[in-house]
Amino acid sequence: MLKTEVSEKVIIGVDPGTQVMGYGVISVKGQQISLVQYGVIHLSKYSTHELKLKKIFERLTQLIEEYLPDEMAIEDPFYGKNAQSMLKLGRAQGVAMAAALARNIPIVEYSPKKVKQSVTGSGNASKEQVAYMLEKILKMELSREFMDATDGIAIAICHQYHANSPASVSTPGSKKAKKGGWGAFVSENPGRVK
After folding, report:
1. Which residues participate in Mg(2+) 2 binding (predicted)?
2. pTM to 2 decimals?
3. Which residue among the candidates 5, 15, 58, 188 is catalytic per the annotation?
């Protein structure tokens, strides 16, 4: 009996921020998810927004060169009360995406609610609840001082879960549905489309 070798997929998850940016790198072999690396990029020490963006690009480029991810999952910026903060967060996300695009790494965006829902079952879960569930999924203890990093891990795991959902798996002769797009919605909700 021949044994087929299970291929490995590496996913980097990024939680963009202008003060602290979290990231998590996971490896997936078959159904086994393991944590490769996680951490934060401290940006508050940089005096200008431009320096922060430069640091994000440089550090993510280093991580990409070191871990060679196959895909990047990144959290969508969400609208808060301050439009200026939203603009800065969008720039941080764009620079993070540019680091992946420079290496031809596919990128998928997920809303914070979708990430929490995927990992905990509740779109309104706290950071602590997300970290607790990640420890159960990964079967290891995570440092509580890096809550932004655990968000990065959660985004990567969310992507893995959705990459294997029926809506995102292509069948012969069909185009793969864009995650989060209308094709995925229609596939997941056939009774709601007329």
Report:
1. 75
2. 0.81
3. 15
